[in-house]
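Can you please make up a whole protein chain along with its backbone structure tokens because I've never seen that pairing?
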Amino acid sequence: MLSYQHAYHAGNLADLHKHALLAAALDYLTGKQKPLSYLETHAGRGLYHLRGAEARKTGEAEAGILRAEAESWLPAGHPLLRALAAVRAAHGPDAYPGSPLVAAHFLRPGDSAHLAELHPAEHTALTRNAPFATIHHQDGFAMAQAVCPPQPRRGMLLIDPSFEVKADYAALPRFVGQIARKWNVGVIALWYPVLTDARHRPMIGALQDAHPEALLSEVAFPPARAGHSMTGSGMFVLNPPWGLAEEAARLGAIFRDRA
């Protein structure tokens, strides 16, 4: 559970999919003059540098956000591009926001944020990079159970585990159901990897059976390198904000045509 470090994968195609949907959702939610809460179960360090040693080792950002920018996958003014520009203006041209700093671009005074990260080094970095939030050095699932329903009640939860713990696949449908009962007005978004062995399928089937009204967005892309088992990215969203289904459809078409 403590070995995963996202710096090796920041800005990859899965991040592009996840962060484009996250930014679109928050852009809509913060367009209304009502305060909200943002929660994240597995926040990482919040800020990455795409020319750093970790990112250069895998090259995943080159095939992800950097390629997408060079080829104009996202239209000018897209919420993710706005967040990315703000982070680069503050932290340098090679900076890339993890989901906490994507969220930070949209959050306003009066909004609330709770971020959990268990990895000691990542937690230390997150504390430095996300001063706008309450940082929890604990299991993210436990944090969400304790905080939900948050105040303000309007808002969004991003569930984004590394899935290194295979038991997460079986446990997540029950966890999502518990949070949905506690926080029936919250936008609850679960990111998951699409893998060649399809281990995510029973989880998604159980979630769809329990929440048939939810939005499911999956995109496919080539493996990052030979033998790599991730060939796509998925987002399952309860109470999706207005317009998110259309954004998911646009992203799906982009990945089908270009990835």
